[in-house]
Each structure stands twice: as structure tokens, then as C-alpha cells.
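Good morning,

Both structures are done.
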Amino acid sequence: MLYNLARPFLFQLDAERAHRGTLRALDFAQRAGLTSLIARPVASSPRTVMDLRFPNPVGLAAGLDKNGEHIDALGALGFGFIEIGTVTPRPQPGNPLPRMFRIAPARAIINRMGFNNDGVERLLMNVARARYKGILGINIGKNFDTPLERAADDYLYCLRKVYASASYITVNISSPNTANLRELQRAGELDGLLRALVSERRKLADMHGKRVPLAIKIAPDLTQSDIAQMAAIFIEHDIDAVVATNTTLTRDAVQGLPNADETGGLSGAPLTARSTQVVRELAAALGGRLPIIAVGGILTAADAREKMSAGASLIQLYSGLIYSGPGLIGKAAHALARGKAAA
């Protein structure tokens, strides 16, 4: 209710400014014990995925809290898990402003943030300060000026740095806002990157006495053949989960609307059907061998149920929070708990 009252004001602001202001407001609400006025109670629906016990299957997608500065406030909203990042080895400012745009009539967002973040060292300082005890995913990427042939160096650096602090680690090879990053989804590049990461993970598991799951985040702009080929590589390298999907470069559903011609990745309602189709095709290709974390165009409880019916084990929210508010967390969790009970 409170978010519904605040949203018209927030939508008068520049999207990135509203984003920062909302996170500061959530921090204040959490410290003041007022989070219950913002988010509805969340149904318990525990499930085990990647050998981790999730209190409910509704998570926060990476990108909203890039530096892990708001973990406690976000955790208080009732998420079953939180994913922070994308983080890179070195701090970088991202792309020039403005770089985030609402397309309100379509319930969509275009962003070309460009992995803006304060670097992995600062993120780890923020994680260490947080009191959150739930499942924390850390999403890792490469710096924009690291040549693609050296990309594995950046991912390995971040993997080593965040390993001890993460419940699971997501490897982001699908953002459209870092030049040529999606080239890492090609079979040869993907095989080489995963081979290096999995080898390093074995060493880190021995060193730390725990095996931290590795997930890979993929794009929605893939053919069925691409998906099948990638699924085989994920299985071969014993990857623990696939996050499907990132934002899309297509604009068919928003043609002619204000901001539709801005460059960057499109998220929100126009992505719903395509993201669900990727989840469905990926689930068929994986044959139950790996779990899928579905993200993309989940704006209602019905969208959440549809993602699970397509083959997902968990879901993540981002744009849905902007248009539907934090009450969506509880609504989605309740719908999925009810669905699990019915099954």
C-alpha cells in the first residue's frame, strides 16, 4: 500500500535517482523496524536447491544492489535469497548518464548501466558488515577494459575473492552492456571459461573446506540450438545451476513508445514470454540434471507460477519490484507455496 502511494512520486524522478532513493528509504525502514509496513508476510516454503536450503523460492536478482550496501534492508523484505553484484575486480563507473529508462506503458525498463560498481574489495567489506544470515549469491563479471581473451583472469580473480563469503556464485556472461561479453556464451569460449572456473573451484573447495555452488547467467536472445549446446557444456563441467535470463536486446514489444530506442537491455513485462520460453527449452535440454533460477518479466504471482511450471526451481525479481512493489515478494511466495502444497 505505501509503495503504491509513493510510486507516482518516484516515477517523476530520473530512474537511477529513484533507485538510489528507494534503497536509502529501505535502509531507514529496516533500522527503524518499519519494514512490515512496506512488505507483506512471506509464506514459508522451504526447498533444497544446489544443496542449499532456501526458506522460500523467491529471490532478489543481481543488479539492484551492486555493491552489497543494502543487504540487511533487502533481507528484511522476506526474500528467500539475495544476489548482489555484478562485481568486477576493479571499481568502474559504468556507462555515462543517463543509463536507465522506464517505459511505463509497457511496464518495462531499459538499462545500459555497464557493471558500475565499487570493486570486489568494497563489496566484501559491505558483506562483512551485514547481519543478514540468509542465502547470499554473489554475481561476478569482468572489467569493461579487460580484453575478451583475458576475461577468465577477471572471473577467476573474483571467484577467489568472494568464495568464502558467498552461499553461491553466479558467473555473468550475458549482460548486453559490456562490449562483446556475450561472446563468452559461444561454445569454445564457454568451454574454456568453465574449465578454468571449475578447476579453480576444486582448489578453493579444498582450501576452504566447502564447495560453493557455481551458477551461470545466460541471455534470452539465444536460439534453441544455442541453448541445447550450452546445456551440454554446463552438464559436462558440473555447473550447479543456470540463471535464465538476463535482459534482451529486442524491442518488438515496445516499438513506438517513449525511450524504446535507447540502447541497453530491456526488462520487465515485454521479457516475460521470451524468458519463460528459454526456461522451458533449457529445462528440456538439461533433462533435470541442473536446476534453473528463472528471472525475467515476473510482475505477478501468476508470472512466478508460470516460470516454475516451465521448469524453474527458484525465481528472482527485479523489474517486478519497480512496477508492483515489495508486496510482490509475499504474493509470489504465497502462490508458490500453495502450488507446492497442491503438487
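Second structure follows.
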Amino acid sequence: MVCQGGILAAKEMRINGKIREREIRLIDQNGNQAGIIATIEAIDMARDLGLDLVEVSPHARPPVCKLLNYGKYKYELEKKSREQKKNSSQVRLKEVRMQPKIEQHDMNFKARHVQEFLEQGNKVKVTVRFRGREFAHTELGKAKLDKILEHLGGDSYKVDNPPKMEGRFMSMLLSPKSKA
């Protein structure tokens, strides 16, 4: 069962006749505890008020149920989850690849791309790929990564992983500085 904020997701909640427990802890429509009562009584009470009996905490003993309008409750839960999604920012990982023998103009072009990705709030993995005899001169790749950092300036990013070798690749991970 998926739980969101201590309350079951709307799809997994049991309502009215689907509640199989004999006794429940009832919370009335005003939010006051009505105590522990038989499930059948609570369902009748809900029907009389034109509301639904919704099991909000099935793992408690006895389970906690509320008298409420289920459609409205479901709508409120969906509205909250949409709001949370809207407020959360998704950080994507972008990758910029190059070779150690990259020309200056091309490197400036790649550095501008890295800068744009950081400004958009994305993390950036800058990778230098070594082929053949280039593998003997990894210091050239380190120099290229240092030039990228030099081009960016020191105020717009933070180095999460400094340059290191991973097989035939040397890479570093940059993330944007938080806007506090």
C-alpha cells in the first residue's frame, strides 16, 4: 500500500461497505472523536448524514474512519499532490562530452552549453573521452576540464565530484549553486 503523508492514497482507501472490521474509531464530520463504535452503526450514521465512511488509518487498532464527502476528500488529496509536484523542482543530469584535442572555439561552445544547463538548474557531467594513444596523456583531459571551470567563473556552480578517471573517461560533476 502506498502512503502519502500518513494517509493512504485515494485509490487504496476503503469506504462504506468495503470496511471489513467489526469496530472502528470514528471521527465525525466536525473532526471530533466519537469513540469506538460498530462499523454497521457508523455506516448507517454516514448514510443518514448523506456522507461516506472513509477508512483513513487502516493500520491502527481499531482502524480510524471519518465521516466525510468522499468525492470532495479525493479532490482535495489530488489538489495537494498537484501542488506538491508543482512546487518541487526536478533536477536533471545533463552531459557534455569532448576529447582532449578539442579546439578552443569548440571548447568555448561547450562551456556555454554547460553554463546554460547550470542556469536552468540542471546538474552537468562534463566528460573527456580518451581514445588510443590519448589515454597516455590524461593530464591534457584534466587541463581541458580546468579550462571549462575557468570559463564558467567561480560563482555559478559547485563541484560535486572533482575530475577523476572512470575507465576511458575523465569526468566531473557540477551542480548550480542554490539561490538562497
